């Protein structure tokens, strides 16, 4: 389902790749039929008529979810409305969050180690406050990787970069007001934190049902 949407939306599952794979495995010599059942969410990246012309295989789009393939076949390759409907519940939006957080935290911990090393090299004592200074950046990571996907349908705008920036700027303003930090620190937070959350929100382009290849390129 959504993984195919991601691949099709970012150009890695498409017409040329499909034709190449069919030729690579000599599919026409393996099966007698000439029908390909493709995931419905891959349609944005596939020109079915070109695939048919180049390979001889007719393209039929199956259901949204792989779990419905058996019922789709039993119904004579006909999909009901439920099989064609894309849901986007909170649980589905948060399904990829653990992966994003794990991948992001590897970079974040490396950045923290570099920050501590720079402070040590500059002769500054590394104290608890040094670690506390990293909290806003950790917050920006959670905003971009968790909060934005969680409340995505209610954030104004269509661009994920804008959505991430908007939630990030609100979070940065709240931090500046509540933390009572020097104005220079607050200004730094207002500039950097929304940029982090905006960038991380971009990773969600392939996991939404309203992005496209052209939209991803614009992002």
Automatic annotation (TrEMBL):
| Segments traversing the membrane | 104-122, 134-155, 161-178, 190-210
Q: Which keywords label this protein?
A: Membrane, Transmembrane, Transmembrane helix
What NCBIfam families does the entry give? HgcA_corrinoid (NF040863)
What protein name does the entry list? Mercury methylating protein
Lineage of the organism: unclassified sequences, environmental samples
Q: Which gene encodes it?
A: hgcA
């Amino acid at each position: 389902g959504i993984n195919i949407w991601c691949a099709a939306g970012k150009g890695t599952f498409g017409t040329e790749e499909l034709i190449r794979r069919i030729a690579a495995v000599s599919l026409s010599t393996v099966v007698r039929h000439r029908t390909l059942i493709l995931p419905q969410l891959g349609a944005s990246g596939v020109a079915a008529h070109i695939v048919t012309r180049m390979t001889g295989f007719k393209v039929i789009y199956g259901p949204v979810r792989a779990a419905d393939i058996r019922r789709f076949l039993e119904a004579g390759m006909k999909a009901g409305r439920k099989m064609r409907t894309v849901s986007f519940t909170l649980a589905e939006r948060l399904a990829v969050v653990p992966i994003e957080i794990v991948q992001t935290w590897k970079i974040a911990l490396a950045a923290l180690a570099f920050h501590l090393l720079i402070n040590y090299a500059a002769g500054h004592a590394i104290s608890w406050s040094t670690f506390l200074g990293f909290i806003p950046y950790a917050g920006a990571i959670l905003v971009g990787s968790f909060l934005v996907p969680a409340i995505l349908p209610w954030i104004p705008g269509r661009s994920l970069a804008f959505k991430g920036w908007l939630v990030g700027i609100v979070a940065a303003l709240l931090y500046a007001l509540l933390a009572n930090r020097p104005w220079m620190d607050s200004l730094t937070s207002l500039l950097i934190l929304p940029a982090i959350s905006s960038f991380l929100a971009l990773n969600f382009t392939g996991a939404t049902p309203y992005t496209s290849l052209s939209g991803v390129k614009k992002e």
